[in-house]
Amino acid sequence: MTTLTLVQGDITRQSVDAIVNAANSSLLGGGGVDGAIHRRGGPDILAECRRLRASRYGRGLPTGRAVATTAGNLDARWVIHTVGPVWSDTEDRSELLASCYRQSLRVADELGARTVAFPAISTGIYGWPLDDGARIAVATVRAADTAVEEVRFVLFDERAHAAFARQAG
């Protein structure tokens, strides 16, 4: 059974086997969590992302998929990059958001990761409503068939922590 832990803080400061990056499809860094992971993790992460773009993901990583790289200077073994969907009030993209969590856990299992830190995927610049994003994240992780022992949701602020706490109950 996977233990869910909620932490308010900086995901780049977590000591875990794998840190999940809310990446953009280019895999070449960006703002928010993505930028913070690339800055603190250093150039090795970007170098591996560039290799992925030059080989398997020439058009970028598709939304809802996940791929791993080194964690560089982070206190983790791997970074699992996943591309969350942009919120839409005209199209239900919930399955794509759930896929981010499922696919990240699948990659974690392939790597042998036992502890994984997740951000609140898509709830920042991608505009996903925080309460709904928390609901999808918690429900998807709880339903996942995974060998990961601890999923740590690392929430940037009190508002996000409270939304996840309501769902984790």
UniProtKB/TrEMBL annotation:
Cross-referenced PROSITE patterns: MACRO (PS51154)
Origin: domain of life: Bacteria
Family matches, as SUPFAM superfamilies: Macro domain-like (SSF52949)
InterPro entries, sorted: Macro_dom, Macro_dom-like
Domain Macro: 1-169
CDD domains: Macro_OAADPr_deacetylase (cd02908)
Protein name according to UniProt: RNase III inhibitor
Organism the protein comes from: Streptomyces longwoodensis
